[in-house]
Amino acid sequence: MSVASLDKQLGIEVYATQTVGVGGVIREAADDFEVEEILVDGSKAPLSGTIAGKVLGASSQEQRFLMCVLVKRNWDTFIAIKNIARQLGIDQRRIQIAGIKDAKAVTAQHLTIDGGKADELMKINVKDIQMFLVGYLREALSLYYLLGNQFTIKIKGIELEESMCKMRITQTISELQALGGIPNFFGHQRFGTTRPITHLVGKAIINGDFEEAAMLFLAKPSIYEHPSSRQARQQLWENRNFKEALENFPKQLRFERQMLSRLADRPDDFAGAFQCLPLKLQELFVQAHQSFLFNRFLSERLKRGLALDKAEVGDWVVGVERSGLPLTAVAKVVTAEALAGINERVKMGKMRVALPIVSVKQKLSQGIMGQIESGVLNEEKIELENVHVNELSRQGGRGGLRTAVTPIRDFKLNAIQSNGNVCQADLSFTLLRGCYATVLLRELMKPSDPIAAGF
């Protein structure tokens, strides 16, 4: 089955299912893509602002961290937090989140404000942003509080009759459930769909070439972005005039302009320019390159016909918490002697097959999967022992393990609305933290042009 060229650029080279896709478009409007965050205690950040759940047991105003729900529409998470911090008159580093949410969507998530006061929330007046008080915590919010996200999504413009649309969606989900869930690819958002260069920037950083990394991030144009942005990037690519670029870059390219402000004064301080960016954004570059390599590993495993929910000798496997979250710290390499017992535990849902997120510290798999991974690294000209270690690469490059497959919870085809031979499918489902709704939607839709399809 044909795979879009954009997907291949991101290391997503195969489909896990054989059912023909329904096509269609997502994110035609922000309300077509809704995300509600779920914490490990079951607390959900609702779009309505009505708080449900235990909220981690914190209620006393003697606690240090004020906890809120942030509901945003068509906002990048980092930029939304920057605006909230500005209105509160605080350093944005005092605001912590558990996870990054989609920009072109309506999303609800938790956040904590170090030393925040409930009455200060009245100061926040930003278009398409709402803040709701939850309570207080003893510590700042972090990834480890996050269980996952519930998605409610509309696929519009499906050029099929209602019965065919329903059949294809149902069959695709059945195929995925038989595999143990969706292949746990890092989705398009990890790399930048309209300008997929984040992983290329990360590769330059781990090679110690900050000048190349900066020029890729600032100046490599894309045919899919706004003409004014594309023209400004192209001009910088050609003349490398950072002062001129600072004048020409559109105001909405906030992060690029932060770097340009530094380079306009210090044109050779490329590493320093990156350090002007929010820490979490700095981390994303190296992580995106690691994600690309993971995607390539997983694609090759699927190409070879190796199961995602059954271990081979030499595979990494990890434990699974009662919540369903993988325990990547509890990991082992499968030996021939232990293979049968481990696969029994995998079948029971107590363990999962995992692949490495490569770093100088994380070891590759052994056996056939190890051979696959070594082959990919050779193709990509990555020599782990020669990776350049520097401050930026350390921030995002710790590596680890990621499961090869992730479960789909509570999938529902809520409705199919038909207008002649054009349908709209309304879906809802829940995925564990770090897993991408677009990976599931990609299997359902199989778009020939992911950008036109809203990815």
Notable features of this structure?
single chain, 455 residues, alpha+beta, Alpha-Beta Plaits, Hypothetical Protein Yqey, Chain: A, domain1, Pseudouridine synthase, eight-stranded mixed sheet, four-stranded antiparallel sheet
The coarse overall form would be: globular
Strand content: 15-25%
**Largest sheet data:** 8 strands, mixed
| Helix-strand makeup class | alpha+beta
CATH architecture of the domain at 31-148: 2-Layer Sandwich
Name the helix and strand elements from N-terminus to C-terminus, one letter apiece: HEEHEEEEHEHHHHHHHEEHEHHEEEEH
Low-confidence stretches: 52-58
Number of helices: 14
Please sum up the structure shown.
Among the domains are: 31-148, Alpha-Beta Plaits (2-Layer Sandwich), CATH 3.30.70; 198-279, Orthogonal Bundle (Hypothetical Protein Yqey, Chain: A, domain1), CATH 1.10.1510; 293-406, Pseudouridine synthase, CATH 3.30.2350.20.
Break the fold down into its secondary structure elements and pairings.
Layout: H1 5-9, E1 33-39, E2 65-73, H2 77-88, E3 95-97, E4 106-114, E5 129-137, E6 146-158, H3 162-179, E7 182-183, H4 198-206, H5 210-219, H6 227-239, H7 242-248, H8 254-265, H9 270-274, H10 279-303, E8 316-320, E9 326-333, H11 339-347, E10 351-357, H12 367-379, H13 391-396, E11 400-403, E12 405-406, E13 409-419, E14 422-432, H14 437-445
Parallel strand pairs: 1-4
Antiparallel strand pairs: 1-6, 2-4, 2-5, 3-4, 6-14, 7-12, 8-9, 8-10, 10-11, 13-14
Helix pairs in contact: 4-5, 4-10, 6-7, 7-8, 10-12
